[in-house]
Amino acid sequence: MSYLDPLRLHFAGQFQANVSTVNNDPGHFDNATFLQHYQKRQGPRMRPPNGWFNPEGDAAFRLLGCTVTSAWLPARAVDSSDAVLECIVADSDSAVAAKLVDLDSEQQLVSEIWGLEVRIADANGNTLMAGNYKPAAFMDIWDRATGGGNGDVGAGSAYHSVLSDLRWADNLASPFLQQLKTASEATGMLSIKFNIDGFNMDFSSPDFMVGRVVGSIGPQHPGAPQHLIIGRQFMAVAAAHGNFFTPQGGINFFPALIDTKQSSIYLDLGNALSTTAPGEALNNLGDLTLSAGATSLGTIAATGSDGYASDAAWYRQTAGVVALALSAAQCKAAKRTPLTLTGNTGIEIAEWPNGAFVRADTYVYRASPGDAVEVAVYATQFGERLSGSAVAFSFDSGQLQPTPDEHPYVQAGPPVAAPTSAVQFAEEVTTDAHGIATLVLTLSDPGTPRWFNTGTDYGIDGQVYGIRPTFKDASMNAGPENQWNFISLLLWSGFNVPDPVTWNDIQPIMQQYANLYPAMLRFLNMADEDSVRTHAGIMKLAFGLPVSDPNSMPVTRDLSPAKRAAMLEWLDNPVKSTVSTPRPKRPVAAAQQADSGVPPAAPQGGKAAAAARRLIVQKR
C-alpha cells in the first residue's frame, strides 16, 4: 500500500522554500539585455519589477519544527506510551539543505525537491530512521484559501514520493517504529505524502519564505507506483474563475483506497479541503457523506469533538486522512460503483461514472538529444489496474507558461513546445497485465528555439514540452479533466564539447548563472574568469556531484550533461580565452523602458505570476 495504510504516522510543522526569483522571468535569460537591477528586490513603480520578491534566494528547502501528531497500527491508534508520539520529523542533521527546483522558467508549476533526507528522530534529535527522498514534483496546486491571501500565499499543493536507502537505529523503543521497519523490509522504502500551504511572502516577516506542512508516512509495498495511489480518484469540476485551479464546491482532487482486509476505506483530504485563510482552519462545508450509488459508506463530521472544521487540531493530527469502517455489504457496493462525497451545503465531488483514471507515475523529465525516455503510465478502473486498454498520447502545452508579448509585467519570452519533431512517441500504447502503458520518448536535438537573438548563444537551453495521456476510447474519458495531469519534459539543446574547452566556450553559460543566481555572489563571481579559476577546486567538486546531491551545482538542475562535461573539462585544464569577452549591454531604449514609472499590478512574481502568463496565453 502506501501512506494510505492502516500502519502510518502523521506529522505537522513548517517548511522553508527559499527560492530564487530572478530566474522566474524568461526575459532575464538574455545575457545581452540583462541589467544589474534585475538582481534587486521588487519595489514600487518598476516595470519590469526587477528580480521579483526574493532575488537572493538560495533554493533551500527545509522542514522546520515538525512533530509526530499521531500514529496508527492496523487495528487502532497507538498507545499514548508509544515513544513515536514524542518524535520529530526533520531533514538532514549532517548535510546542507535540500533544493527546490523549477523544471523551467516556462514550466514553474512542477517544482521538485532534490537532495532531501527525511529523518524520524527522538525528542533529542537522535536519528531513529533516515531515508532519501526521491525527487518529485508537487501536484494538484489550487486556490486553497478562500480569504486573506491571493496567488502563492493562498495556494495549496502536495508532494507524494518515497524514502529509499533507509537507515534504522539499532534499538527502537517504539513498537510502532518496530512495525514500520518490518513493513518496509519488502521494498526497502517508505511512502511519504505532505501537503503545503500558507506560504509567507512578506519579506518583513520573520516567517518570510515559510509555510505550513502536514504529512503522512507509511510502508511502500512491492510493485506500487512511487508517486501515485492505485485507488479511487475523485475528480473536481473547475469553477469559472481562479488563478491556479478553483474547484466547484471547494473540494480539490483527491485519492481514496479501499482496504478489503481491514474492511475500511481511506480518504486523503489533506490537499482537498479549503481553508478560511492561508495556513489556517478548514472551511466548514457541512458533514461530508461518502456514498457508492445509493449506499452510504459513512460520514465525516464537520463539527463536534472530532469535527474537521471545529477542532483546530484535526488537520494536524490526521493530515486530512480519514478512515471509515465498512461492512461486507458496503465493500461489495463500493467495488464497481462510482464513489461520491457530498456535503450538506450542496457540494459534491465524485469519481468518473465509469471509475476510470489514467496518469503517469513520474511526470517530470529532463533529457538530452539521443536519450530514450520511458514513462510508466498507469490505467485504473474502480481502483483496479486496467490491462489491455489503449492509452493515447498527444502534445499539450496549454498549462506551460510562455510569456506573450503583451504581458505588462514580464519581459517577453520565447515560445514553448516547438519543434515537435524533436520529440517522437507512439500515439497510443496498450497497457500490460499490470495496467502500465510504457510511453517511449525518442529525442533529437531541438536546436535553440529559445535563443533570443539568432546567431548568439544567449537564451534558455533547450525546449519544454507537455504530453497528455488519455484513453483512446473517447467514451472512457467520462468526466472532468485534471488540468495538471500531463507529462512535462525539458529537452536540452545539443552541445558538442570543444577541444580544447576555453573560457570563451563556457563564459556565456557562467554569465547566465551569475545573472540569475545572485546568491552565488556571496562566494564567487561565476562570470569572472579569475574568480572561477580561484575557486576551480570547489567548483569541480560541485559540478561533478550527482544532481541528486544537495551540494550539486547549479542548484537549478537545468545544466545539460554535455555542458556539465565541458565545464568539468575546463576546470580540469582552465585554458585561457584568446579573445576578450566584454559583458554585453542592454540597448539604451530598452533600459529606459525597464525603469519607466509603471507600478506592477501582478502578484509578486512566484507561481501566481507564472500561472497568470498561462492564463493570458489560453485566452488569446
Please provide a written account of the structure.
The chain has 620 residues and is an alpha+beta fold. It has three domains: 8-19 and 57-350, no CATH class; 356-491, Immunoglobulin-like (Sandwich); 503-572, no CATH class. 14% of the residues lie in helices and 29% in strands. Strands 1, 2, 3, 4, 5, 6, 7, 8, 9, 10, 11 and 12 form a twelve-stranded antiparallel β-sheet that branches. A hairpin with a 4-residue loop joins strand 14 (254-259) and strand 15. Helix 4 (503-516) crosses helix 7 (561-572) and helix 6 runs antiparallel to helix 7. The longest helix has 14 residues, at 503-516. It starts with 7 loop residues before the first strand and ends with a helix. Residues 580-603 have low confidence and may be disordered.
